[in-house]
Amino acid sequence: MPRDGCRWSAWVALLAVVVLTTTGCVKRRMTIRTDPPGALVSVNGEELGPSPVSKSFTYYGDREVELVADGYERRRLVQPTPPPWWNNALTEFVTENLIPLTLRDEREFFYQLQPASTPPQTDVARRAEALRAQAQSRPPDPPPGLFEGLFSN
Predict the structure, then answer these.
(1) Residue 50's domain is classified under what CATH number?
(2) Count: domains in the chain
(3) Residue 40 to residue 23: CA distance in whole angstroms
(4) What is the pTM of this model?
């Protein structure tokens, strides 16, 4: 009978070693795609590069995304990233530490950029003429007494 007890405790010890050494893992990754591709992507002020671009993340929550492309309107938005159903306050410890599998949470976001609106040619020409006239006009004289005492001997 003692041999069965030793065998049982050996299995329990082996199981404990396996559980403690094979911890769980969650890999989180977000990918941002744009139309047109190649827009410069920044997330929470960190420049990630041209789209499509991917980045690993640790925490769920809202992210501030900024997209910039030549000839397109700059786009700023807040992208929510809620946790999956298996990662909540009750199950997070188990999924992160005890399940001996790697869980993957891949998020993909797609954004359509709008072409930049250009003002009509007549407005551009009128603004250019106004700026040219302003640059060619003589600057106003300073108020009397503004520079008194600066250049005295």
Answers:
(1) 2.60.40
(2) 1
(3) 37
(4) 0.60
Residue 120 lies in a domain: yes
Residue 143 to residue 124: CA distance in whole angstroms = 34
41 against 116, higher pLDDT? 41
Is residue 14 in a domain?
no
Domain-embedded: residue 11: no
- 3-class SS letters over 40-54: EEEECCEEEEECCEE
Residue 1 has pLDDT above 70, yes or no: no
Contacts of 84 (CB under 8 A, 6+ apart): 105
In whole angstroms, give the CA distance from residue 106 to residue 54: 10
- Domain span at 40: 22-139
Residues with Cβ < 8 Å from 68, sequence gap 6 or more? Answer: 39, 40, 42, 74
